[in-house]
Amino acid sequence: MRGDQPAPARLVPLGGGTAAADPSGDALDRLLRVRRVLPAMGRELAAMRREAARLRLENRRLLTRVYELERDVLADQRRG
Protein backbone atom coordinates (compact mmCIF):
# COMPACT_ATOMS: atom_id res chain seq x y z
CA MET A 1 0.00 0.00 0.00
CA ARG A 2 1.37 3.37 -0.96
CA GLY A 3 1.13 6.44 1.27
CA ASP A 4 -1.45 8.17 -0.97
CA GLN A 5 -3.90 5.22 -0.89
CA PRO A 6 -6.45 4.86 1.90
CA ALA A 7 -6.16 1.87 4.19
CA PRO A 8 -8.46 -1.01 3.24
CA ALA A 9 -11.70 -1.23 5.18
CA ARG A 10 -11.79 -3.80 7.97
CA LEU A 11 -14.46 -6.44 7.87
CA VAL A 12 -16.95 -6.23 10.70
CA PRO A 13 -18.37 -9.55 11.97
CA LEU A 14 -22.07 -10.19 11.43
CA GLY A 15 -24.07 -8.78 14.28
CA GLY A 16 -21.62 -5.91 14.73
CA GLY A 17 -19.54 -7.71 17.34
CA THR A 18 -16.26 -6.39 18.63
CA ALA A 19 -14.20 -9.42 17.69
CA ALA A 20 -11.85 -7.25 15.62
CA ALA A 21 -11.27 -4.87 18.56
CA ASP A 22 -10.91 -7.61 21.18
CA PRO A 23 -10.38 -10.95 19.45
CA SER A 24 -9.59 -12.76 22.67
CA GLY A 25 -12.66 -11.47 24.53
CA ASP A 26 -15.95 -11.66 22.69
CA ALA A 27 -14.85 -14.34 20.25
CA LEU A 28 -13.67 -16.55 23.09
CA ASP A 29 -16.94 -16.02 24.96
CA ARG A 30 -18.93 -17.01 21.87
CA LEU A 31 -16.79 -20.11 21.37
CA LEU A 32 -17.26 -21.13 24.99
CA ARG A 33 -21.04 -20.72 24.72
CA VAL A 34 -21.08 -22.87 21.58
CA ARG A 35 -18.88 -25.44 23.29
CA ARG A 36 -21.35 -25.66 26.18
CA VAL A 37 -24.33 -26.05 23.85
CA LEU A 38 -22.87 -28.66 21.48
CA PRO A 39 -23.19 -31.69 23.81
CA ALA A 40 -26.87 -30.92 24.41
CA MET A 41 -27.41 -30.53 20.68
CA GLY A 42 -25.71 -33.88 20.10
CA ARG A 43 -27.93 -35.58 22.67
CA GLU A 44 -31.02 -34.01 21.14
CA LEU A 45 -29.97 -35.13 17.65
CA ALA A 46 -29.38 -38.69 18.88
CA ALA A 47 -32.81 -38.72 20.52
CA MET A 48 -34.42 -37.49 17.29
CA ARG A 49 -32.65 -40.20 15.30
CA ARG A 50 -33.86 -42.87 17.73
CA GLU A 51 -37.41 -41.51 17.50
CA ALA A 52 -37.24 -41.48 13.70
CA ALA A 53 -36.07 -45.11 13.68
CA ARG A 54 -38.88 -46.06 16.06
CA LEU A 55 -41.44 -44.32 13.87
CA ARG A 56 -40.10 -46.02 10.73
CA LEU A 57 -40.44 -49.41 12.43
CA GLU A 58 -43.96 -48.61 13.62
CA ASN A 59 -44.89 -47.43 10.13
CA ARG A 60 -43.57 -50.68 8.66
CA ARG A 61 -45.65 -52.69 11.15
CA LEU A 62 -48.77 -50.69 10.39
CA LEU A 63 -48.30 -51.02 6.63
CA THR A 64 -47.88 -54.77 7.02
CA ARG A 65 -51.12 -54.91 9.02
CA VAL A 66 -52.95 -52.84 6.38
CA TYR A 67 -51.75 -55.19 3.63
CA GLU A 68 -52.87 -58.22 5.67
CA LEU A 69 -56.32 -56.71 6.23
CA GLU A 70 -56.68 -55.80 2.55
CA ARG A 71 -55.68 -59.34 1.60
CA ASP A 72 -58.28 -60.76 4.01
CA VAL A 73 -61.01 -58.46 2.69
CA LEU A 74 -60.24 -59.42 -0.91
CA ALA A 75 -60.25 -63.09 0.01
CA ASP A 76 -63.65 -62.69 1.72
CA GLN A 77 -65.05 -60.86 -1.31
CA ARG A 78 -63.94 -63.66 -3.63
CA ARG A 79 -65.58 -66.28 -1.41
CA GLY A 80 -68.80 -64.41 -0.83
Question: Could you describe the 3D structure shown?
Answer:
It contains one helix and no strands. With 80 residues, it is mostly helical. It starts with 25 loop residues before the first helix and ends with a helix. The model has no long low-confidence stretch (mean pLDDT 84).
Helix and strand topology:
Blueprint: H1 26-79
Keywords:
80 residues; elongated; 68% helix; single chain; 1 helix; mainly alpha
> Uncertain spans, ≥5 residues at pLDDT below 50?
none
Judged by helices, strands and strand pairing, the structural class is: mainly alpha
Number of helices: 1
In N-to-C order, the SSE pattern is H
Report mean pLDDT, rounded to a whole number. 84
Give me the Rg, rounded: 30 Å
Strand content: under 5%
Distance between the termini: 94 Å
**Oligomeric nature of the chains:** single chain
How would you sum up the major sheet?
A: none
User: Roughly what percent helix?
Assistant: 55-70%
- Overall 3D shape: elongated
Number of strands: 0
Task: Compose a concise summary of this entry.
The protein is built from 1 helix and no strands. With 80 residues, the protein is mainly alpha-helical.
